[in-house]
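1st attempt posting a full record on here, be nice pls
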Amino acid sequence: MPKIPGVNHLRALEKAGFKVARQGKHVVMTDRTHFITIPRHNPVNAITMGGIVKDAGLTTQQFKELL
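the predicted structure (as tokens):
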């Protein structure tokens, strides 16, 4: 699992085409193909963030470019 530092990840995922589906203790985002669940605490653990990016169908490099 790649390590990605916790940064403004929600905005980067919105740039990738994801939209917030619902919010609570976690934020659920979708691009109509992938559903990803992101914890609300900030910063998100680097290993967790790497898993979220992988589940979103992005590479680490693609995600870093969106930041």
